[in-house]
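dumping the sequnces here before i forget
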Amino acid sequence: MIAELGHYALVLALLAAVTQAAFGLIGPAVGKPAWSAVARSATSAQFMLATISLGALVWAFVQNDFSVEYVASNSNSALPLLYRISAVWGAHEGSLLLWAWILAGWTLAVSWRSDGLPEGFAARVLGILGLVSIGFLLFTLATSNPFARLEPAVPDGRDLNPLLQDPALAAHPPMLYAGYVGLSVAFAFACAAMIEGRLDQTWARWTRPWTTVAWAFLTVGIALGSWWAYYELGWGGYWFWDPVENASFMPWLVGTALIHSLAVTEKRGLFKSWTLLLAILAFSLSLLGTFLVRSGVLVSVHSFAADPARGMFILIFLVMIIGGALTLYAWRAPLLRSEAGFEFTSRESFLLFNNILLVVAAAAIFAGTMAPLISDALGLGTLSVGRQYFDPVFLLPILPLLALAAVGLHSGWKRGRVTERRAAILWTLLASVLVTLLLVLGVWEGAKILTPVGFALGVWLILSPLIDPIDRWRRKLTLTPALLGMALAHASLGVFVVSITAVESYTRERDLALAVGEAGQVGEFEYRLTGLSGVEGPNYDALRGEVVVTENGKPVGVLYPEKRNYWVQRQVMTEAGIDMQLTRDVFVALGEDLGAGRWSVRAQVRPLINYVWFAAVLMALGGIWAACDRRYRREPHA
Amino acid sequence: MTPRQRRVTLVVGILVGVSAAVALAVRAMNENVMFFFDPTQVASGEAPIDKRFRLGGMVRPGTVVREPGALEMSFVVTDFQKDVPVKYSGIVPDLFRENQGVVAHGRLGADGTFVADEILAKHDENYMPPEVARAIKDKHGGVMPVNPDVRSVPRT
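..and the predicted 3d for all of it:
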């Protein structure tokens, strides 16, 4: 009954979305901007109905209603409650519903905060968001209904994939989707501006906080996924250039470019059509990412063909949204010319290069991600693109970008020249070179070619953003949240670069073969296997190793890596044992029984690795801080 | 420079930069892309000798041999037409077992043994790497001889 209610609410939500789109788009077009009131009510209705629908699915999971096929496929009565809830978005159907719900939520937020917007413009924004909602709700209802019943019901479910039974991964999809979907707001603002044929600096001021907050969510979502991959997959890496990871990273890169280009459009009224194009691209890549991952195209070309209805729907929807927006762009963008010019060393040109480099990086990743698909579709052979391609083509645009950021932060708008702040730039550069020398010569030995480059750029990027806030503070000038948030986000990027450099340069790893009582050496660290015992969890049993780690004879800690065997899916999972410290992680994962009483053990020591995710979270906080600036809350009409 | 000249310089500079980036990306892709070969293709000499590639097929039952207590191991990858012996040292993924699909990255040695440096991990016991499934299907008139449940990995 509850499942049918959820299904019914979803159908009604679709009707609400149609109303929202129709009144939002037609009202202003026929000179009835007051119709926006209807679009607004429809927005509230859509959110309420989507909430009921999602709530019904959560309820079905909590109550172990195995007569619902989706629940039966992705849950089990032995599954802990937290994971029964996160199982809602553990597979295709439910995650689409989550997507639709988050979109309805963002739309409601826009309609609440749109008091300051001109009525016709606000209506159009809601109308565009309604169109996107229609697409997702139709897709869910027509091809991926999570409420479908199973006849006859089964006594127990097939369980959630054990890999997904993890707190970080429970939070990962909602965060990621909040980011993906949040970019739809910038997209809707861009489309509305193109329909009106008018784009001024107030427009950029409305769009900026939405985009920045969406970007912050996306950042946290990606970081959570990367953290999970590190401790859960048993390989100890944090980024694999996996197509699924790339699908989330491309909208992030273009979204980052968009944030910067919006700054130029707001402050100087420049880059207008470029900003629009980026807004369209960022959301298109979000859609593409969601669908590529969810339809299984990237993992297997077969699953695309296996469900032609789903594949066709995806293609048609993508073509309509992206094609429609680009057509609108081709038609309207020439109306939105920018009129001012700028000096070569002004902030505008630094941000221009920022945009070019970010988009080039995104394009290179796009090419590497799509090449296997295209080659396969054209029958040119099955190929795979890995780290050997992605590392160099990503670093090539990104390393200069980091240096440009450290310098560009000190540039002024319009005629401003970086040379005015030459002292600050040179002092921070000198300091970072000194720190790098200390690090490379003193703390760690055995650097690679890029190690000093990475350290120097990272430290420079930590110091450089701090100069301006400190200077203003000493001169008792106002420090706005926008300024401080920006400084925090860029300094976190520096922390990120330093930690990645340390991890990539100084990770020590070895696969050991150990029997109980034996020990192996990884750098200065000794791993001694002292015990193996059986333990039992709520829905699995496990073999647990006891590994005593010492550094140069001094005790570091005892780690308990596990090899888990989940009962329902009969799947073996590796649970790593990690000793986290401020300066390094000691990582150990059990491999397999090698015979003769020995087990294979993956042992790693990774310096500064936790700062990779810590920096990403700080970066996101910087974004949110900046988006809270009062400037964005002031009445745009005033 | 007049504003017009400056704009032209900027545009030309960007074009040159972007084309250089494209050229480098294409080069990087040509050099670093790995192709997939099945045992029949390897046996007929289609696979490169000097480059890394992906070898895929089924682990032939009864061929996994391990030096007791050591990380070195060997097994045979088959598509039920031809076999390729594989050597590997390290930890294999949780789902590696006999009569299951496998993808190995590595090089072909002079003696015809494939020296793997990476064995791919997949997270679902019913999962079969798509290229493996196809390679085996092709040899059997479009029918999978074993493990017919080809489905994609659940991802989030």
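The CA atoms of residues 18 and 24 of chain B lie 10 Å apart.
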